[in-house]
User: Which sequence fits this backbone?
C-alpha cells in the first residue's frame, strides 16, 4: 500500500510547463481586478478615523 503513494515533494524538481496565453491573461486580469478592489477599499476606509473625529469635535466660539 505504501508503494501506491506518490511523494509530492519529488514532483517539485520536475520542469515547469508553460501556461497557455489565454489562461495567463485571464489570471493576470483577475489579479488586477482584485488589486483595484483592495486599493479602493483602502481609499474608502482609511479616512474613517479622521471623519469621525471631525464629526464629533465640538467647536467653541470665542
Assistant:
Amino acid at each position: 500500500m505504501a508503494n501506491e503513494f506518490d511523494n509530492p515533494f519529488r514532483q517539485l524538481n520536475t520542469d515547469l510547463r508553460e501556461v497557455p496565453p489565454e489562461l495567463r491573461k485571464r489570471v493576470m486580469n483577475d489579479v488586477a481586478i482584485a488589486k483595484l478592489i483592495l486599493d479602493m477599499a483602502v481609499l474608502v476606509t482609511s479616512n474613517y478615523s479622521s471623519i469621525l473625529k471631525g464629526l464629533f469635535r465640538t467647536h467653541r466660539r470665542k
